[in-house]
Design goal:
The protein is an alpha/beta fold and about 375 residues long. It has 12 helices and 13 strands. Helix content is about 35%, strand content about 20%. It binds 2-succinylbenzoate and magnesium ion (MG). Belongs to the mandelate racemase/muconate lactonizing enzyme family. MenC type 2 subfamily.
Length: about 375
């Protein structure tokens, strides 16, 4: 196939509840929806999930746009593409910038599946139709407000809760949740807010039967995480560190973690994500699918990917109404018995809502031949 045209919607969706982490507060999610059209008029859709601030990892939506327009699109056009697995090789000369790469790579996968009239999950030999999901809860200064939120999510059926923590906001909220929900699958995510000096403090988390502790230390640290994992009973999970299968190999070799939060955009796309799934399967590392406050487009992709049988642990893939008042796809995702359904159409399986795209964003053509 040949790429003939690339268009983009630049969207801002207000969040229903502001999302606070150890590094900041998000009230609105900005993202780009990228549409790639082939010579037959088929269209693949990808989402650029980077944030506006470089506070989760270094990439931002603005840097990603430059990488896409100046460096990735020129590599993509004027050539015959037979298989989406070629894209990650093609992009290898551009270093880093995984979210930029992923927005294009996943759109090409969607395009390819649509050309062949197949659901994306068929390319992963995946057959599950209902995916168990969890919810990630932001920092709430008021504990009773926190408990109210968690109670509502548990009542809705979410199968696992992840609490954001930071120094000064950890033992107390965790103990309050445990008191009210002794058996709830509960985990915590620090987004790099601690250092090895907090080792003995973090060891106290072992008392709360947490399913895991996500990313306590810096995004480029493997040694301190290994030191902590050695003395903690609770599984450590790496998120920000994991940009490639190489990072998984390193983490595994050093014993830095026993679980991997896999986000397709943070590793540059589907092809690299599949390598990570293989590696985790081979080495008995618990792998599960994380989220980036995606719109329905990224969520559909995540559900297609999470339909592989290895993803039994509930991912950060919540229903549309956990994040947004209105989604930009025609049918928002709803929670049924703690699960979301894998969309059944071809490719990622969802169609866009033209009305909502224009209500919340602007349209621009970024390449035409
Ligand atoms: O650290 O996993 C994280 C959201 C944005 C950026 C980083 C993270 C998160 C979440 C929520 O925890 C995931 C989601 O529900 O999309
Ligand atoms: Mg995380």
């Amino acid at each position: 196939m040949k790429i003939k045209r690339i268009d983009c919607y630049r969207i801002r969706l207000p969040l229903r509840i502001p999302f606070e982490t150890s590094y900041g507060r998000l009230t609105e999610k900005a993202f780009d929806i990228i549409l790639i059209t082939d010579e037959l008029g088929n269209q693949g859709i990808g989402e650029l999930v980077a944030f506006e601030q470089p506070d989760y990892i270094e990439e931002t939506i603005a840097t990603a746009r430059i990488i896409i327009e100046k460096h990735l699109i020129p590599l993509l056009i004027d050539r015959e593409i037979d298989d989406p697995r070629e894209i990650s090789l093609l992009f290898q000369e551009v270093k880093g910038n995984q979210m930029a790469k992923s927005s294009i790579e996943t759109a090409v996968w969607d395009l390819y599946a649509k050309r062949n009239g197949k659901s994306l999950q068929t390319y992963f030999s995946a057959t599950r139709t209902q995916i168990p999901v969890g919810v990630s809860v932001g920092i709430q200064s008021d504990i009773s407000e926190l408990l109210k939120q968690i109670t509502a999510y548990v009542d809705q059926g979410y199968q696992r809760v992840k609490l954001k923590i930071r120094p000064g906001y950890d033992l107390k909220p965790i103990a309050s949740i445990r008191e009210k929900f002794p058996d709830l699958p509960l985990m915590v995510d620090a987004n790099s807010a601690y250092t090895i000096d907090d080792l003995s403090h973090l060891k106290k988390l072992d008392a709360y039967n947490l399913v895991m502790l996500e990313q306590p230390f810096a995004a480029d640290d493997f040694l301190d995480h290994a030191q902590l994992q050695k003395v903690m009973k609770t599984k450590i999970c790496l998120d920000e560190n994991i940009r490639s299968v190489k990072a998984c190999e390193l983490a595994f070799a050093l014993g830095s973690c026993r679980s991997i939060n896999l986000k397709i955009p943070r590793v540059g796309g589907i092809t690299e994500a599949l390598k990570i799934v293989d590696f985790c399967e081979k080495h008995d590392l618990l792998v599960w699918l994380g989220g980036m406050f995606e719109s329905g487009v990224g969520r559909a992709l995540n559900l297609q990917f999470a339909s592989q049988s290895i993803f039994t642990f509930p991912g950060d893939i919540s229903a549309s109404d956990r994040y947004y008042y209105e989604d930009i796809i025609s049918k928002p995702f709803v929670l049924t018995n703690g699960k979301l359904s894998v969309p059944t159409g071809s490719g990622i399986g969802v169609s866009l809502s033209p009305e909502h795209l224009l209500k919340y964003g602007n349209y621009e053509t970024i390449y035409t031949d």
